[in-house]
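[step 3/7] fold_predict: job queued, chain A
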Amino acid sequence: MAKKLSSREVFMLIILVVLVVGSCWYMFFYTPLQNEILDIQAKSAQLDTDIATAAAKAAKMKSMQEEVDAILARPADEITEIAPYDNATVVIAQLNGILSASEEYNLTFRDVAVNSDGTVRRVINMTFRCESYASARSIVDALSGSHWRCIVNSVNMSVPKKEIERDDVPNIMKYPVEVTAQVTFFESKNLA
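[step 4/7] structure written:
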């Protein structure tokens, strides 16, 4: 026979059922749903990062393509070429020709750096003295417009202190100029 439950027992059973249903809902529905939301938010943040990276890469690729198009649009005599490896004697001869417009110069060759793709970077530190800013500028322009692929990494022009008159405001245009520069010439082992 079934015993009749008192109202207190019924109330306690209802509370127990509510607690069991609430616990089951929390454990089997709410918690997994929150974990899934956090996972989706993390994936969304990663996708935003990936999109920003891809956009930056696309912009860089577009910029590089525009550079290549600009280079290829130049007349054939202005396009630089990558020299075969160990082009040092040709580079020295070219630098001698360019720097002959200076009063004196000094070249220091650093050890070559060889990349895994066969590209070689030959870094040359140079100092030279010119009679004016205009002649120093023409030498730097000739270096940057070299037939062989190169990049002028840095240029520092200064007027020697002994040249500046005490009461005169320094005007770089009317004094001799000393230049310190670093140029990297590119070569390729794949062309040798």
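[step 5/7] annotate
The helical segments are 7-73, 88-99, 133-144.
The CA atoms of residues 34 and 40 lie 10 Å apart.
exit 0
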